[in-house]
C-alpha cells in the first residue's frame, strides 16, 4: 500500500478562495477533490518513483509533498478550464500556465513543484518521444489546415 500524502481536508485547508465561514466541502465536492488527489498521487509516483523511500528515510519532508499535491489540485479547482489569460476591455488577467502536457481539468506537476521535491528537470526531460506515422501528403493538408 502506497503512502497517502494529501487528503481532501488538506486541499480545503489551503483553499484561500473559499471564505473561512463556509461549510466544509460537501460530499460531491469532496469526492471530486479525492479523484483529483488520486490522479495527483499517480502523477507524483510517475515523476518521482522513489518518493516513498525519500520520505521514509527523511531526505524529503512529508509536509512538502503534502503542499505540492494540494497546490496541484488547487490549480485545477481554481481554473478547471485551463485558461492562461482572459481580457475584458482594458483589463487583462493572467492565470499562469498549466503544467506542460496537461489537459485542462487534469492534474499536473509544474517544474517548480518538481524542484520543490528535489527533482531537476530540463525542458528536454519533459518531452517524450513519439513515433509518428508518415503522413499522406495528399490528405494531410486540406483547405489550409493540417488534419
SSE topology:
Blueprint: H1 8-14, H2 27-47, H3 51-56, H4 62-78, E1 85-88, E2 91-94, H5 111-116, H6 137-140, E3 141-142, E4 145-146
Antiparallel strand pairs: 1-2, 3-4
Helix pairs in contact: 1-4, 2-4
Describe what this molecule looks like in 3D.
- With 147 residues, the protein is mainly alpha-helical.
- The chain has one domain (8-83, 94-129).
- The chain has helices spanning 8-14, 27-47, 51-56, 62-78, 111-116, 137-140, and strands at residues 85-88, 91-94, 141-142, 145-146.
- The protein has a two-stranded antiparallel sheet. A two-stranded antiparallel ribbon has the order 3-4.
- Helix 1 packs across helix 4 (62-78).
- The radius of gyration is 19 Å and the shape is globular.
- The N and C termini lie far apart (44 Å).
- The model is unreliable at 124-137 (pLDDT under 50).
Describe this protein with a few key phrases:
single chain, 147 residues, mainly alpha, two-stranded antiparallel sheet, 6 helices, 8% strand
Helical content stands at 40-55%
Distance between the termini: 44 Å
N to C succession of SSEs: HHHHEEHHEE
Low-confidence stretches: 124-137
- How are the strands of the biggest sheet laid out side by side? 1-2
Biggest sheet: strands, sense, closure? 2 strands, antiparallel
Mean pLDDT score, rounded? Answer: 77
Strand content: 5-15%
Structural category: mainly alpha
- Radius of gyration, in Å, reads 19 Å
Structural domains: how many: 1
Topology, number of strands: 4
